[in-house]
Amino acid sequence: MATKKAAKKVVKKAPAKKAAPKKAAAKKAAPKKAAKKVARKPNAAFMKPLTPQGPLVAIIGAMPMPRTEVTSKIWAYIKKNKLQDAVNKRMINADDKLKQLFGKAKADMFELTKYVSKHLK
Q1: What does the alpha-carbon distance between residue 34 and residue 95 come to, in Å, rounded to a whole number?
Q2: Is the pTM here over 0.70, yes or no?
Q3: Which of 6, 24, 77, 101 has its CA 20 to 30 A from that of 33?
């Protein structure tokens, strides 16, 4: 005798196949003009050698150099002496030399150029 609760077979249906997308009519590409690649020239204001003065001399030296090099030398000094804040990497913990440059114990990395530009002539 068969009971009412007969085991039902579970039949999984295969997912319906999607119709292949119809290909759009091929468009002719407009002829492209030959783009002239012009080499970028660095801004002359950034490359002009400036002489460090005051507390900046103690950090990077007295030789005239462009602003870009001044900034990279200051960052090298900060990294070498591990003055970047461990938690908030944007903050610079000033040592004695940087304290004279910044005028305070901590400075934001975005303020760095403001303090440096006061000591470049």
Answers
A1: 55
A2: no
A3: 24
Cβ pair 81, 66 in contact under 8 A:
no
What does the block give as tokens for 106?
A: 């901590």
CB within 8 Å of 26: residues ≥ 6 apart: none
Task: With a cut of 90, say whether residue 20 has pLDDT above it.
Answer: no
Domain ranges in the chain are 48-117
CATH 3.40.47.10 is held by the domain 48-117:
no
CA nearest to 49, candidates 60, 38, 37, 33: 60
On the question of pLDDT at 21 being above 80, the answer is no
- Phi, psi for 107 (deg, rounded to 5): -140, 150
Convert the pLDDT of each residue in 48-100 to its tens digit.
Answer: 999 999 999 999 999 999 998 999 999 999 999 999 999 999 999 999 999 99
Q: Would you state the structure tokens that stand for residue 63, as one six-digit string?
A: 């030789």
